Amino acid sequence: MSFSLPTYHPPDFTTAKLAAAPLTRFARVQRDGVAPPDYHATSIFPEYLHLAPGDWRLLTDSRMDCVVRRGEKGALEVVEFRRLRCGDRVALGRHEDGSDGIYVHTSGFRFAEQRPEKFAFRTLTTRESSFSFDYDELSTLLEHEREAGFVLWVLGPALAFDRDARAAFVRLVRNGYVQGLLAGNALPTHDLEAALYGTALGREIYRKRPVAGGHYKHLDALNTLRELGSIEAAVKRGLVGEGIVHALVEKEIPYVFAGSIRDDGPLPEVVADAYAAQDTMRALARRATTVICLATQLHTIATGNMAPSYKVLADGAVRPVFFYSVDMSEFAAQKLINRGSLTTRAILTNVQDFVVTLERGLKARDQGPGS
Amino acid sequence: MSFSLPTYHPPDFTTAKLAAAPLTRFARVQRDGVAPPDYHATSIFPEYLHLAPGDWRLLTDSRMDCVVRRGEKGALEVVEFRRLRCGDRVALGRHEDGSDGIYVHTSGFRFAEQRPEKFAFRTLTTRESSFSFDYDELSTLLEHEREAGFVLWVLGPALAFDRDARAAFVRLVRNGYVQGLLAGNALPTHDLEAALYGTALGREIYRKRPVAGGHYKHLDALNTLRELGSIEAAVKRGLVGEGIVHALVEKEIPYVFAGSIRDDGPLPEVVADAYAAQDTMRALARRATTVICLATQLHTIATGNMAPSYKVLADGAVRPVFFYSVDMSEFAAQKLINRGSLTTRAILTNVQDFVVTLERGLKARDQGPGS
Amino acid sequence: MSFSLPTYHPPDFTTAKLAAAPLTRFARVQRDGVAPPDYHATSIFPEYLHLAPGDWRLLTDSRMDCVVRRGEKGALEVVEFRRLRCGDRVALGRHEDGSDGIYVHTSGFRFAEQRPEKFAFRTLTTRESSFSFDYDELSTLLEHEREAGFVLWVLGPALAFDRDARAAFVRLVRNGYVQGLLAGNALPTHDLEAALYGTALGREIYRKRPVAGGHYKHLDALNTLRELGSIEAAVKRGLVGEGIVHALVEKEIPYVFAGSIRDDGPLPEVVADAYAAQDTMRALARRATTVICLATQLHTIATGNMAPSYKVLADGAVRPVFFYSVDMSEFAAQKLINRGSLTTRAILTNVQDFVVTLERGLKARDQGPGS
Amino acid sequence: MSFSLPTYHPPDFTTAKLAAAPLTRFARVQRDGVAPPDYHATSIFPEYLHLAPGDWRLLTDSRMDCVVRRGEKGALEVVEFRRLRCGDRVALGRHEDGSDGIYVHTSGFRFAEQRPEKFAFRTLTTRESSFSFDYDELSTLLEHEREAGFVLWVLGPALAFDRDARAAFVRLVRNGYVQGLLAGNALPTHDLEAALYGTALGREIYRKRPVAGGHYKHLDALNTLRELGSIEAAVKRGLVGEGIVHALVEKEIPYVFAGSIRDDGPLPEVVADAYAAQDTMRALARRATTVICLATQLHTIATGNMAPSYKVLADGAVRPVFFYSVDMSEFAAQKLINRGSLTTRAILTNVQDFVVTLERGLKARDQGPGS
Predict the structure, then answer these.
(1) CA neighbor of A82 nearest in space, from A42, A41, A26, A34
(2) pLDDT tens digits for range C131-187
(3) Which CATH number fits domain B132-367: 3.50.50.60, 3.40.630.30, 3.40.50.10690, 3.10.150.10?
(4) Could you say which of B173, B241, C330, D21 would form a disulfide bridge with A330 (CB–CB 3.0 to 4.6 Å)?
């Protein structure tokens, strides 16, 4: 199975309707954090603003449910409402067909015939769907991304509780399939608990036997890390010698750990402010060409909000951003699917098995047909 | 069905073992936010510290996974690790049987025979469990709490999407069954969307027909509230005339809306910093005598961490804190049950139906046997 | 909220394509239970066979995945493959647009504008959908069906485990909202356990306290009923004085209890042969105008297979058959929704609450606006 | 990881209480299929009947919720109520401690210390549990069983929908890890659909593209098999050349396909009568030393009812019967766990991944440490 990105077909702005479209209107922000009436809100799709006759400008680094700010020199920036400042110029208009000078392009990518049924029947993905093809498709995609893309992983804590899944993820990091990672406080905490004490929530990580004082283990991990001041210090001093977080530090993979009200500790690196966390998460999300979310509803939806369905590359080319949501529950996995993008996939399974199986597939591909 | 609180039976400190127990040891904090080695971590159960021979002091306002700080005049405070400051004196010891001068009392409450099976068989609560008794038990409990307790509700956004559930919850507020409320940004946002536009996520809240520009509705609600500066302003100016948030303002019920990385907007009242949010949430949680969590894993677990299984009343009496988790999934509902407290209940159902059914039961009781 | 059935619009057989369509072909069965090559299989939609020029005959009593047998006098019968006999004439053709003399009419019903979004967005029904409207819609539907239709209920055992749900269902039976019932062995067994011993799976049905020898209760119920020889005998002799089964017998509501490999006992009435059970179930299903399935995947899918989306009334009028699936899991509830019929609804909740809430709504309507 | 079966420790019948226990009482059946009053019902545990002073007889081939029939020569047989005949002698007594001459031995097996936590904390198995150890434990168990046991697989249809899972299961059959198989009509139907047409429910089994006339594919498979008269005929004539069913026929592995009311067709081999199906299923179940159930609630519970927690081997030795339930939902997986046997395990994942991962682990073990 070889891989090729679907090609992007820009809108035809020479059609009568679009050629006759008005220019995009803008209005000034009157109060910090508040958009002017009739503001335009962005979607996950490529959007074009009509800035001068015949000059339709594609938004870069877009995301859902934001507004478009026009900079001094005409540069367009997609920003969260909370980041608006008095005097900013914000795009107006709620029609997406060009009649407000804004065109939302929902059908830019032509996918190979591999998934015509998605159009035809919109059949739901459930636990009874076949996923062999998805594993293979994702493998070929990741091989491509390793060279030419940016794979952002979004992890719930479950991955840290299982020996084989942890080991498989570490190999993914080492072999170049992880360019960035988003998580909360729990994933690194339990991964560090495993690295420091060999336990997960107070049980041996492999045999699951409870250890003495087990319910202290994750608190001890947090307390130790807080004392050392940083994960990097713990790695450099040799206290943390294996695991997911260790691999990230070793390979200098950027990560963001966003704080939440559930947290103990927290770890020193955790970003306490939800919106500061959004900003740092989005700094990674805007680089992403593929996003893979494992068993975390909070972080999956947060990242889904930040990740548009396309990316404008340095050379101006437009490519899709793929978004995978892996979860045990249709309810959770379908939340993102419901956004309607063809670049979104749900895989219904336990993330432990998902990571182990995916990594084995990648390894087999690496070793070639003789393996 | 009448109601009586289970009585609390303190430990017998005259037993040989406890009488001979050492005094609690304390050590100084050497670095802000870091507990000294061998720190003692708290549980959800009543805990006693042996401060002077025969003087066992019960922790008040306790919570799970914290440390005990001894104040100048011997006062004991249960604090999060992150709140420790250099020089603070922190209790040490990891044995819970008194041998470290700390006694954790897991069996203080004698429940009436109503739930002996919990001990006998530990049968799981599942969707096939019968819940008629739980509804009635909760009704009698809430009648009691309305006079003598503090009922804290923890709400996911689902409640705001349904007309009847919203109306039922508003009646609960008006009739005195709600003393405090915890939620994220989504619950008030969608409740305000309903109050302002009659929609839920862009559809008519009752008939579910999509309205024009539906996907702008929640953004418009957020933008409007941000412009007005506060929910209270929106209520006072008459823009928000009904709904959950309106009822809270009208009845002056305290609430905390904690920010998260999923948020759009956010609303002006939302607390951005996760740990500042924890502090304000805990200020309500420590007043709670009953906690009812509806369809929110994040806030349920966060509140569960903050809510111990007991409360020391003003007169020194000790009573249980009841904790209800209502969810559609055994996985979510059982997370809290797994803590092992007898004061915790799971109810497996849709929270819309739960609120409607509970409120009807309370109303029928109010109207008396003739109704 | 008043109610009116959507009107049925037959196909226009005068269009050029249909006017020129060939007659339906038929072939003889060569072996019992085996359809001839190129057989036509039925769907849930109205289907017309072209028997003579201009004579398009609508199938009555249709169901999914069956074949069409032509009787001696031209009568058409939709039959299961297993019921075919040597020499039977079976309709051929796999095109549904008339080109094989068969026309499948998927858009015959014009629904009021109440659910246009189903076409527009195909938004999934999940646990977070609002259901107030669905309860009201179903109430108005049931009021109509009580006079003019046939409401078939399909019950999993969960309903028998809860006091309030049982009582509410009994009132539904007594008040005329139940015309037929399908279930397995477990529903009547546990309902009879409750009637005989006041227990559910060996616990008090209301207070859930385990009783002595609890695990014998359902076996004793089965053994007692097997000794008496029939449920009717148990009711007539006064041993069974309340409950779901009692109400069915009292009101002479027809029921089918289909056996399965899970069964203990079984009860005397249970049909052991799966296909004989299908036949008796279908005899009820073909009378149904509304089907309501509660928390049973096996029986819901089985009944869904037997229930087409329309019914030809005695006077030749065509009306829709409504199909409700109530379950806690999107996976289960959506199985039927996936069939694509507009007459199918999923409600995500606990069936205990569903029955209690629905019955209260119907009662309130019965008592009129003053209640 | 090496493997050793836990040893069985019979009860000590020389204790005062058991030595003084009365003999088991028996009573005659008065009516076919009806047990006499005070009948004893069996459990999943080893049970001993006191037939003569000091002669405690262990039940062989036991199962839950049955009665004990005493044959002419004193032989004891555990039979379903429905199989009782007038005049049969049935054991009486509802106490399990010997006081009725019946002793139920719940703690006969001494497990290595690998799972002490099961006793200590009764922690629930959920989707967040670690399963690396369970995979390895099961691998070592299956290696042992291949030589010395009988592994019975119980399959839902999901396995037949996925290319890699089907292939992995075929390898399990070929490599000797499958001694018997239980399923319904759907599993073989969709496996044969795949073998005949390369589709699963009308889509290409690997790429999931819909094929023309896709909804006829499973009906065509059924019709073809019904014409041929048997699966074996289809294999022998070369029409079915691969897949699960093909591997079973090829390796002469016994299977039972039990009919249900959901069935289309059915296939010729399917047993229509639920209780005849129980009898043939139990004939396999009584040979089983390990049972592995994949994603089928109906068949899992049915088989669980038939499979006791122990087996008496030909030489009189007693060994445990292991029971694995693999499912995506805690609700389903925990149903069996709730029986309380230490020999029962739940694994929460997608069965596709489970089979692929298990088979890879077994293959790696086969190839030895150098692989």
Answers:
(1) A34
(2) 999 999 999 999 999 999 999 999 999 999 999 999 999 999 999 999 999 999 999
(3) 3.40.50.10690
(4) C330
